[in-house]
Amino acid sequence: MSQNQWPPVVNTNRLNAPQLDVPPRILLGPGPSNAHPRVLQALGMRQVGHLDPAFINLMNETQTLLRYAWQTDNQLTVPVSGTGSAAMEASLANTIEPGDVVVTGVNGYFGERLCDMAGRYGADVRRLEKAWGEVFSPDELRAALAEHRPAVLALVHAETSTGARQPLEGVAELCREAGTLLLIDSVTSLGGVPLFLDAWGVDVAYSGSQKCLSCPPGISPLTLGPRAVNKLNRRETKVPNWYLDMSMVGKYWGSERTYHHTAPINMNYAFREALRLVAEEGLEARWRRHQENAELLWAGLAELGIGCHVPREYRLPSLTTAVIPAGIDGKAVAVFLRENYNIEIAAGLGQLGGKVWRIGLMGFNSRRENVTLLLAALKEALARQ
Ligand SMILES: Cc1ncc(COP(=O)(O)O)c(C=O)c1O
């Protein structure tokens, strides 16, 4: 077909989008948090090809940095192309075979999502339920493992919907006795909350880039330990998700460097820089910073007459569920903060809908000046009501 035979190009009159401009929000909700300026700078660098020696070198560095952030020696430790849900799905798709019993801790929104996903991969899902904001005790987990003898126990380490931290120490020993893989969601903990994958015996973990790692959303870490890799290698059926099949993706990230899909080059630059920032600061210092700023927030909230939904012992430093005082319109407060201070906080989900605000202090955003500004803005918002 020559040019003068083309049909007329339609809809040109609708192409009136102005140049992109976005408000300078301070993202103090459940995520994304603001990316660190150095991460945004890395994101904008020129591209190389996804098999370029320079990129392969960067991949190796990223894996080493990610192993540090997670405190693991797992060989199969990779950034998945996609948001946290992609790594979540990869963790299940690769470890579950149809009919496998999977016990899932459901004490918040993301436990629910794990059940939904695991069911789609043919798991026989057994729900272990608790009220939103509570955590599972070792005795409860031991009893569930004894009753169900599952192939996988899936727990959310940091429930972004409730602000609760699930203690993991000792859980792996219980799993070993039952022949169970321990799989954890560390989306809101990696880089902000103490986490020792190998010392705690975690077999499978995933996370996201946009929370305590201060990178934009779009790339998400996944790691499989030796017992999980063993299960993957012995599968009788193919991983039922081509894009997330770690037996293939792992070859691109391993020594073979076989093309699987085009890595999102610039997201990998950004992610590497985010991990470099974690290593530069040091995990202990970073965890301490998150804890100190969270404590400052909790003390300031108490002065305003605002309590926290989760008992202190299990409270996440990265995400606080602040109880909306009686008679206060929580939604109006959030709108006030956004419109007057460019601060984003979020409403409660599910069982906590209308009851709490979710306040995140994650990664680059976990800073004293953010806490002080938020508390001053909150005080003003409450006074207006
Ligand atoms: C605990 C938890 N798991 C999984 C996810 C899913 O990640 P994403 O929204 O990046 O797909 C989130 C996102 O907020 C999360 O907080």
Can you describe this structure?
The chain contains twelve helices and 14 strands. With 385 residues, the protein is an alpha/beta fold. It has two domains: 109 residues, Aspartate Aminotransferase, domain 1, CATH 3.90.1150.10; 244 residues, Type I PLP-dependent aspartate aminotransferase-like (Major domain) (Aspartate Aminotransferase, domain 2). It has a seven-stranded mixed β-sheet, sandwiched between helices. The protein has a three-stranded antiparallel β-sheet with strand order 11-14-13, covered by helices on one side. A two-stranded parallel ribbon has the order 1-12. β13 and β14 form a beta hairpin. The radius of gyration is 22 Å and the shape is globular. Pyridoxal-5'-phosphate (PLP) binds next to α3.
Please render the helix and strand layout as text.
Layout: E1 26-27, H1 37-43, H2 53-70, E2 76-81, H3 84-95, E3 101-106, H4 109-120, E4 124-129, H5 138-148, E5 152-156, E6 158-159, E7 164-165, H6 171-178, E8 181-185, E9 204-206, E10 219-224, H7 226-233, H8 246-253, H9 265-281, H10 283-303, E11 319-323, H11 330-341, E12 343-344, E13 346-347, E14 356-360, H12 368-384
Parallel strand pairs: 1-12, 3-4, 3-5, 5-8, 8-9
Antiparallel strand pairs: 2-10, 6-7, 9-10, 11-14, 13-14
Helix pairs in contact: 1-9, 2-9, 5-6, 10-12, 11-12
Bound molecules: pyridoxal-5'-phosphate (PLP).
